[in-house]
Amino acid sequence: MWQLFVVVLMTLVYYGAQEWLSRVRLPVLWTLFILVPLAITPYWFKVNCFDLFIWVKTYSILFCVGWGGWLRFTAMGDKPWLRRSIAWLLVANILEALILDVQGSGIAHNLNALAGMLLIATVPLSVRHTRIDRDSRHQALRYDAPLAWICGYSLWNWTFVYLNYPELTGHHTAVLSAALIVACIDPQRWLQTRAATLGINLFLMATSHSGTLAVSNATTWFDESIAIAAASIAFAWATVHALSKLKTNPAIALRTVSRRQLRERTSRIVDTHKLAGLHSPLQRFTLKPLFLPHES
Known about the structure:
The chain is mainly α.
């Protein structure tokens, strides 16, 4: 019960932190997520023994926050080819974890890896899904991802942490929950919030890993049956969403309509032939003309 209270409290703290970060300007963002991390990198490497994934994830997320801030507060955010990078950075974020899950053994890792693949297959990549809200006071980065996809991503990511870093499950439950609260209010703000909350979490963990675990260490939460159940739910959710996207895909819908129209047109032609006494389409090539041109 105490651990649950701690997770709820951390969720509120992360929610408040992201609200503050959404209001600061580019110099503050770059100082917190670019300059300070670079300055204390030697300290981080000295006191931590993280695996490669944690280091790659830490610096890639810090970069993403800085990159998003650069697009938000400069004219670069008005260039479509640069805004397109936001969706591809999200894909790269999923791919980093997917590689680690693929290397794991067991049905839970396999199911969660499949869920990650489906998320990548259905992530909105078009540049029209990403824009900078120039009318807002804080120049928010808005990414138009369906709430169903966001929920599927959250299930998959929670399961990934539970499988690979169970001691951090409590922290990441709070990180994901804060972003989900924002998504339920305004789904287009989710990606900016997700990057900010995860960036804060990774910054704190790299600065004081022991302090992070002192606040919440969920190692005892792990249970193989729970892992399999969570991975199954994540995979099922991603599958249902992928199938729904397949049905509503404009290109597929257009092909379906075209085939239906072709069948209807063929049926009308056949009916017309029958009314004209043409029982076979080949007969039209053997008919003699009713009127011959007059020879002068």
